[in-house]
Amino acid sequence: MVGNEGEVTPVPNYNPPVGLAEWLSPDLARITAPNPSPMTFRGTNTYLLGAQYIAVIDPGPMDAAHLQAIKEALKPSQQITHILVTHSHLDHSPLATLLAQETGAQIHAFGTHLDGRTSIMTQLAQTGRAHGGEGIDSHFRPDIRLPDGATITSPEWQVTAIWTPGHTANHMCFQWGDVIFSGDHVMGWATSLVSPPDGDLTAFMASCRKLQAYPARTYYPGHGEVIDDPKARLAELIDHRLMRETQILNTVSDRPTNIPSLTRQIYVDTDTALLRAAERNVFAHLIDLAGRGLVEPDGELSVQSHFRSTRKKSA
Ligand SMILES: [Zn+2]
After folding, report:
1. How far is the CA of 184 from the centre of ligand 1 (A)?
2. In this structure, are residues 204 and 159 in contact, taking their beta carbons and an 8 Å threshold?
């Protein structure tokens, strides 16, 4: 699950071959999984990193053909020694278990889908007041839990794990030299879905700013084409969220309004099919704004709350 908050991002002319390894550099290949959709673009990108000792980054959905494609991409001299997972969404993590069983490689990730949540999100989840949970792989269990900044090494490469909660609480990006595997946190083709309680906009913004401190030449995202100007893309994503925040603050008034109504006032040109995703993003913003004291819900914070501005007073 990647998501697309109903944002207008021109679909680039990107049509990778499905199930065939494309060599991006002598020790990096990309295989596109056969799971294209409006939420996953052309399909999940699985990366094979290394010349001899291979780390598979995001094995992908539970799909026998994709497992076969990964195995067929290997040369006789190559061996899968590590499995790295950016986050536990059904289009990224489920195949990790099968691949681990077949190869003996261990699964490295931040944690399960419950790990890394803030107390607000934990509370919203436990009381069922956030709904959400789209595309979560609730069975996912890494063998090795990576703390922020952990390094993973083979005789030929070193990767640093950067915890980037926001799209999900357990999302990590992986830095390898001057490139970063950016998962669903930063993609070129669309903005990420941020759907509470797994998605957290406050964390998402902090993670964008955190990544700005890691200079990189290239990002390899979980979906879509290589990002050649990561600095500009990060700035764009931050600006986009700030623009959305301003729209929401301009729309909330001193009269309590619910999320569907706010969403329809803000996403005027958005296709009905995408409005639900847009509502999830508006909810994510409202939780963030409530945490900063700029809006307040009537009663307990929930997806059904009506929200009012704490600043505006009608005459
Ligand atoms: Zn995702």
Report:
1. 5
2. no
Structure tokens given for 249: 């603050």
Other beta carbons within 10 Å of 154 = 16
Task: Kindly give the distance from the C-alpha atom of residue 91 to the centroid of ligand 1, in angstroms, as a whole number.
Answer: 7
CA of 314 to the centre of ligand 1 (A): 41
Length of the chain: 315
Kindly state which CATH superfamily the domain 22-241 is placed in: Ribonuclease Z/Hydroxyacylglutathione hydrolase-like (3.60.15.10)
Could you say which of 3.90.226.10, 2.40.50.140, 1.10.10.10, 3.30.70.20 is the CATH number of the domain covering 250-314?
Answer: 1.10.10.10
How many angstroms separate the alpha carbon of residue 125 from the centre of ligand 1?
Answer: 18
Residue 113, both tokens:
């889908």
Q: How confident is the model over 219-228, as a mean pLDDT?
A: 96
Structural domain boundaries in the chain: 22-241, 250-314
Query: What's the CA-to-centroid distance between 164 and ligand 1, angstroms?
Result: 12
Mean of the per-residue pLDDT values of the chain: 94
Task: Give the global pTM.
Answer: 0.95
30-86 tens-digit pLDDT: 999 999 988 899 999 999 999 999 999 999 999 999 999 999 999 999 999 999 999
Going from the Cα of 238 to the center of ligand 1, the distance in angstroms, rounded, reads 18
Cα–Cα dist 303/274, whole Å = 17
Per-residue tokens: 40: 């996953």
For residue 289, what pLDDT is reported?
Answer: 98
CB 253 within 8 A of CB 166: no
Q: Is the pLDDT of residue 233 over 90?
A: yes
Rounded to 5°, angle at Cα 80 from 75 and 85: 130
How close is the Cα of 235 to the center of ligand 1, in Å?
21
CA 8 to centroid of ligand 1, rounded, Å: 19
pLDDT for the residue 6: 45
Residue 2 has pLDDT above 90, yes or no: no
Buried b (16+ CB within 10 A) or exposed e, 115-147: ebbbebbeebbeeebbbbebbbbeebebeeebe
